């Protein structure tokens, strides 16, 4: 390297980066080590490049650049290449330092927010606790933070096969309908193309096998796995089939019936002729939700005829897998009022942190590539909506879910303690985290027990076949003595898998080398140079270590193996009385440990992550620190040298392995599901309610009102405060009850309602036009409504088109708007008010008005029963009042920026006046604050930022449209939603789905408030801009609107 003194100056620059901003302990340690090298005269720029900088930054092509530069014969050309490389590394170092600094600030800010939110929530909930209760709660927290040795922290055990059978017999009479959702990837029941791409992997296998196993479980009548229908030329035709029945095993005890069993249901959404990655599916989520809703509605009627005595059979649970399905499941759960369960599989915040730690991409670049912020928001919504979160390990709960705004381990324990004592949580809720390991199929595993002290013939596979598996000879050709116990590791050549430490541990422990062989199954390769650079570099380092310790004849590292060879590899290791090892730095679950245990192999595994839970159940090995090389070699030597210990670990594993079977998984799963409070649409539909041909009969209208228990109570002023409004509503209900005593009066009342109510007409409309324009003032809005009426005048006359007004206004404000604009309430079929928290219908019958103060509208109480999930009610109201005062105090403002608007508040909407928009946080920060305090609600600002509404977490104007479909059969595809160029905080939800959307342009559109920063991702991640269901009108005049409507057949 003579003549390359300039390299040292660039290296000095690398080392000096970030000094001004402060260097953490790790960086100081690196700097100190480099200084020592220089002081001792052993500083090598080449070594620094390769061992420190290149590996530290994980830049995949730097290694190849270094090799090319070093091979140059011309010193001048070599120096030029090295100089360019130095500048590149220096820029990488600077970029990494900048990103690390930004992330440190982000983490610090988040920690402060969580601690503040936890303190505020604890203080808020402590006001009504006595000193004794506070002490008990503290004691409960201490117990919860114990060392985990108590049985309460362990997985629930079903100790034997007999116990499983007893559980199954106890619940076999249930007839459950379960809906699973897994949207992305290629999903089919047979010949799954696992590994075809990054979207078709372990999650696909998990979802399909779970559906199949549940379908074979006693008590479960039907399981639907909903996914995407793909009819693309580059994928197999089977992915375009609408329905696929999942075959059951020979011993499956599944229900019998026309529609019983497990099915893959493929819903068409997104581009019909393209298979696209999951990152590009986000704009089409609402289209999937509407298609899935249609399927579930149809299936509930079919199952009702088969097993429900004519009434609909609703899903007992909707279970989303991964973030995109979690977003979908939350919307479906809210629309149907059905419990939701969620499994994350891998989590966005955890991936974001890993990518940021690499220092190669900024947060913005990561978001652009992976749509990570859209994914994280979907996972936060899943936390808001789910009753149960299914995880594989406790590590996933404590280290991954704890990264989210909507979950905090400490606060969750406090809430559980209060719930057990029957003490109010003031509107706070936390989903229940349940650890249920993934299942495995063990039927194909044939265990051949052997005498521990006997000699084994490795050429005999135990099946009676004269020819052992080909993979056996492929492995044994590496060994000088193939009869020695085999230490088996099965992992791709990735630094996270820590194979190099294993090789060092084996190479430096002479007693272990003399007693055992080492087999490394590190994926498939033809040529190392053709592998990805990261894998190639790591595999090269493993091979160099084998050469360094002269392990030839002791280590096998075959180049190829098939997936079908893996069971034979496990069996070979077991026949040699070997050990399976997983030394990864951290292992989220550890499925290979379960597979190895099923073949009778004791295990040595990392103590970080899922193996801890697996070891608690199987008790068939030793946990080690993956950084402790001597600890790894000691554990391996102990197992292969002590035959009694090896046999005991083998027997423990085989005895307990059934707990990781799919039947066991399903029993654990269902035992949690059946504890959930049943929820479903709270009304009864008549048998012929969906038959449009019979709806012209007045008697059917009467039946709708009288027999279906419509629960439409006449509203007084639905916008009074919660207490006075409730009292008046009770009086109204009492009056209606008194009226109902007289059968003759009831018949007269029902007949009038049947003749004048707009409810049955909703079902007969060919189209529904939804007016949801937030960006216009009242005068312009009235003018636009008149233009819409005029544009559809012919359809209005023949009553083929109905109208719904969707707004953030209260019902009394809507009434005033109609009167001032000279419009009739009967011009509309329904009114979605207060941002989707109330649904009204016009009532033209004067006899139904019980007092002069009442408005001519009927309030749909069934809708309230649909949206009340996790609504905190009066406790939430008190919390919000205190919160609004604290927000003002934080800013040091004398005047309160948020004031409770009692006149506009109702039972399901707490309204606030925004007096100082400069002080109030934008809506995304507001939602974050609510989630940190475990307040599950939907917060949104009006378009101009003067009003703030807090409504139930799954209520919105778009969800109200889905309710109209569920309740009255108004097809979503026949709805046309008219919006402005911007709107309230829930504007995005009105654009997507199978309904049609018209965006009205024009000068009437007022600019939105700065408080409307509701997204940390672009609108294109919510709705497809090129959707055929969206058209834009250049104006809001009659001709413009008419032209837009004609494109949708109106």
UniProtKB/TrEMBL annotation:
Pfam families to which the protein is assigned, alphabetical: Glycos_transf_1 (PF00534), GT-B_Sucrose_synth (PF00862), S6PP (PF05116)
Glycosyl transferase family domain sequence ranges: 481-654
GO biological process, one term: sucrose biosynthetic process
Chain residue ranges for the region called Disordered: 115-134
InterPro entries, sorted: Glyco_trans_1, HAD_sf, SPP-like_dom, SPS, SPS_C, SPS_pln, Sucrose_synth_GT-B1
Sucrose phosphatase-like domain location: 788-984
Domain of life, per lineage: Eukaryota
Keywords assigned by UniProt, alphabetized: Glycosyltransferase, Transferase
Domain Sucrose synthase first GT-B: from-to ranges: 177-441
Catalytic activity: beta-D-fructose 6-phosphate + UDP-alpha-D-glucose = sucrose 6(F)-phosphate + UDP + H(+)
Entry similarity comment: Belongs to the glycosyltransferase 1 family.
Biological role stated in the UniProt entry: Plays a role in photosynthetic sucrose synthesis by catalyzing the rate-limiting step of sucrose biosynthesis from UDP-glucose and fructose- 6-phosphate. Involved in the regulation of carbon partitioning in the leaves of plants. May regulate the synthesis of sucrose and therefore play a major role as a limiting factor in the export of photoassimilates out of the leaf. Plays a role for sucrose availability that is essential for plant growth and fiber elongation.
Name of this protein: Sucrose-phosphate synthase
